[in-house]
Amino acid sequence: MKKRGIELIIGLMLFALLGVIGMQYYFIRQSYQLKLQLFDETINAVLNSVVLKAEKKEAYDFVNAREAENERRRKEQEFRQRSMEEGWRIRELLDSMRMKQRKLETNFAAHINELRELYPGVAELDNSFYETYIRDKRYKGLVDFEFTNTTDGIYDQRQLVVSAKRNIPRKPAKDDSVRVAVLEGNLRSLTIFALPPRRDSQLERQIQYQEASLKALERQANATINTNNFLESVLNEMEFVKQPLKLRIDAGYIVAQLNKELTERNIRIPYDIYIREVGEANNNGYENVLFASTSSKKIASPQHDHLYNAELFPNSVNTDSNSSGKLSLYFHNKNEQILSSMGVMLGSSAMLLIVLIACFAYTIITIIRQKKISEMKTDFINNMTHEFKTPVATIMIASESLKDPEISADRNRVNRLASIIYDENVRLGSHIERVLNIARIDKGNLKFDMQEVPINATIQNVVDSMELQLSKRHAKLTLDLKASPDIVIGDELHLSNVIFNLVDNAIKYSHDVPIIHIATSVHNDQISIKVKDNGIGMSKEQQAKIFDQFYRVSTGNLHDVKGFGLGLSYVADIIKRLKGHVKVRSEKDKGSEFEVLLPLMHPKED
């Protein structure tokens, strides 16, 4: 294909690619506009829904407050009635229990007075004292008693006092009976009487419990009366819908409903909530903000396209400006929400464009590469024709000479012509073998006879076989075969061909007298084979291409270097198949050095 045709194809493909990109951009832009419009409608719907809910909640709260107040009144009446009945019952029960307690106290006082009339000394004992000192025979001797004189202001009285001579840990009382010690007539021994308790302890606890219940009932009744009076006064004095806006709004409820509505619509980008009074602007140019979800009480621009507004209590019959307001939502970056909703479309479009651009680039590279390959194959065919034409012409001339009777009679001339024919046939066979090897490599049919190959000996054999070529160019070749061990696993024939190609290139691309140096060494379990010459060298660009098929380093318009451009391609492929690699170091007009690295069969021991 001609250069103009290739340029035309590339231009048309580029035009088509730009057209696809333009259509994708238009489609994405239209989708963005639709998403933006849908986002605006969604936010307005959310605001209207929340405003209506807030208005309904206000009405419900008003009605519920009225109903609750009526219900409280009814319950308060019932409670007061029950409290009065319960109070009467408790008071009657308390009177009965107190009467029983007083009767017990009277009986006890009568018993005490009777004992005091009968005996000269009477003393009440503590129950724990009785259990410890009197009932326990071990400590009975510790009991001591004496009379003391007391006066009540008018009469002097003698009173019996019972005590212990020595204090010991007291035992607990076992009952609530009252023990009384009386002194007999001889005034030397005590007699103990057990009297019924002065007061019934269980009955006393019941009296305390009932008194506490009565007080609690009275406090609860008083609190209920006070609360109902407060609610009644508030509900009677205010008109709910005529309150100022700051008293009508429930900011917590509005914020919760907004968050719920936005979450249900999958809107999760940052936003601020504002509740403002509708009226004249303040000194700073902003309407009065009653509530803000951020620390700032100002909105950057009320006309900003990221700000959405809705009127609060739109159905209210009150026209007072102090009772009307505006609910606002401000989104910091609504484009983030829109772009996230378009993520699948943007991702697929980007992937499609990447695939198209990659295919476009690959197609252009392939076309250019195929053009170069086509040119190289044309050069290859020309070179092959030239290389084959020379030996064929030589064989033809030599064959015709053998037909001459004079020449055929000369034995020496016949032998020389036969040698020429043989050498040219060998040359033709060598060319054909190279082409066939490359064909086998391309088809994957190249087979290896893997065996142990001594590299140093192989190099020596190749050099010996090339003695005639070296002598024709008067080449100076030196060997430095120091690798030990030098055994690799490979195909001896193909490795010999690798060495042959490297040495042959060193001869062909060297100036007048080729100077070639071949060295082997062992580094890091690998054998290194270096072939260095004093040839024409290569530039960096040429070094990157020398292992491509059909590529030949240019020598100008002269065809003084024979070959097909297959040698180094063959070398690289064979070494790669043997798990090695090839390096090249070269400078223009200063020669080249090729280094082949192959894994050793037996790594050198440290």
Would you give an account of this structure?
With 606 residues, the protein is of the alpha+beta class. The protein has 14 helices and 16 strands. The strands form five sheets. A five-stranded mixed beta sheet has the order 11-13-14-16-15, covered by helices on one side. Strands 7-6-9-8 form a four-stranded antiparallel beta sheet, with helices on one face. It is elongated, with a radius of gyration of 61 Å.
Descriptors:
single chain, alpha+beta, Heat Shock Protein 90, 4-stranded antiparallel β-sheet, 16 strands
List the helices and strands and how they pair.
Elements: H1 3-118, E1 121-125, H2 127-134, E2 143-151, E3 156-164, E4 178-183, E5 190-195, H3 201-237, H4 245-248, H5 251-264, E6 271-277, E7 289-292, E8 307-312, E9 325-331, H6 334-341, H7 343-403, H8 405-409, H9 411-443, E10 451-454, H10 455-465, H11 467-472, E11 476-481, E12 487-490, H12 492-508, E13 515-523, E14 526-532, H13 540-543, H14 567-577, E15 581-586, E16 592-599
Parallel strand pairs: 11-13
Antiparallel strand pairs: 1-4, 2-3, 4-5, 6-7, 6-9, 8-9, 10-12, 13-14, 14-16, 15-16
Helix pairs in contact: 1-3, 1-5, 1-6, 1-7, 7-9, 9-14, 10-12, 12-14
